[in-house]
């Protein structure tokens, strides 16, 4: 999707319903939404955020020392050992900026082609982490569909996955997308509405059910929530987008733009409003 405005003054090729900005009423409702999220402890404290950054810095230093040590043990020359490097990249809710207090940090470790997963990652890196006094609850899961090292550093939970790329050395200053094929990059979510959707779905148990399903089918499952209201009302505030699509998000509703038949299962109500269909989930999932 193009991020550049066209000659008509809006983004993309589809004309929005309205280009009007938010009114004072909706700006006040935005403040109320942010206060609600804060009261619900969806924002971590400043000291917690600083601790996470310190933990990631410690982990980055650890993997860099690990790759050099493991490369030397494997019998490579000192020049090769000097050039050996590994990097970490965060992803998931922490990368998007919508994580809550106590949430784990999904982290990817990228290493060179000679650093195999079974020997280098699950053997030597595991042993290094096990010897660190600040590391606790170290749980390697090498046989999972997505092999992962789970552990805590100073109480901060880390889910560390590994990928070795077809490079003899990993450049320190290159971005991860420059090391492999292109990917769609999701940046930090600034819109408080999206954070509210995350909270409401967690309260309904969707994320919990997805996590249990992931364990049963031995896979990682991501729940992605997309709202078209941001395109329909391009310059509006979050409360206006919510109400214009058929109700406040704080009620835990799930909106769908599909005009197909409504759900007929028990405990699910559907109503049409403004060309959109709202499904209010009131039954247990």
From TrEMBL:
Pfam families (alphabetical): PAP_NTPase (PF20750), SRF-TF (PF00319)
GO biological process: mRNA processing; positive regulation of transcription by RNA polymerase II
Annotated EC: 2.7.7.19
Keywords associated with the record: ATP-binding, DNA-binding, Magnesium, Metal-binding, mRNA processing, Nucleotide-binding, Nucleus, Transcription, Transcription regulation, Transferase
InterPro entries: MEF2-like_N, NT_sf, PolA_pol_NTPase, TF_MADSbox, TF_MADSbox_sf
UniProt cofactor(s): Mn(2+); Mg(2+)
Top-level EC class: transferase
GO molecular function list: ATP binding; metal ion binding; poly(A) RNA polymerase activity; protein dimerization activity; RNA polymerase II transcription regulatory region sequence-specific DNA binding
Subcellular location: Nucleus
Record-annotated MADS-box domain positions: 179-239
Sequence segments annotated as region (Disordered): 239-285
Family: Belongs to the poly(A) polymerase family.
Gene: PAPS1_0
Bias (Low complexity) ranges: 242-268
SUPFAM superfamilies linked: Nucleotidyltransferase, SRF-like
Full protein name: polynucleotide adenylyltransferase
GO annotations of cellular component type: nucleus
Domain of life of the native organism: Eukaryota
């Amino acid at each position: 999707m193009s991020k550049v405005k066209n000659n008509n003054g809006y983004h993309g090729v589809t004309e929005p319903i309205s280009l009007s900005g938010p009114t004072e009423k909706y700006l006040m409702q935005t403040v109320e939404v942010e206060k609600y999220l804060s009261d619900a402890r969806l924002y971590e404290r400043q000291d917690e955020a600083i601790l996470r950054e310190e933990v990631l810095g410690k982990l980055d230093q650890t993997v860099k020392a690990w790759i050099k040590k493991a490369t030397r043990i494997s019998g490579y020359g000192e020049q090769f050992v000097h050039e050996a490097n590994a990097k970490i990249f965060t992803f998931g809710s922490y990368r998007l900026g919508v994580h809550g207090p106590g949430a784990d940090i999904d982290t990817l470790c990228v290493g060179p082609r000679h650093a195999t997963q079974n020997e280098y990652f699950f053997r030597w890196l595991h042993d290094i982490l096990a010897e660190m006094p600040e590391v606790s609850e170290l749980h390697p899961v090498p046989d999972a569909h997505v092999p992962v090292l789970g552990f805590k550093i100073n109480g901060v939970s880390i889910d560390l996955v590994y990928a070795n790329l077809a490079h003899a050395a990993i450049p320190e200053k290159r971005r991860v997308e420059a090391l492999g094929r292109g990917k769609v990059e999701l940046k930090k979510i600034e819109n408080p509405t999206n954070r509210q959707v995350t909270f409401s779905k967690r309260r309904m148990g969707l994320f919990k059910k997805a996590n249990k399903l992931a364990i049963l089918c031995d896979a990682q499952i991501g729940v992605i929530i997309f709202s078209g209201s941001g395109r329909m009302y391009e310059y509006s505030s979050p409360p206006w987008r919510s109400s214009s699509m058929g109700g406040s998000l704080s009620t835990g509703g799930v909106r769908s733009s599909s005009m197909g038949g409504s759900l007929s299962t028990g405990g699910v109500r559907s109503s049409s409003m403004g060309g959109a269909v709202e499904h209010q989930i009131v039954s247990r999932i």
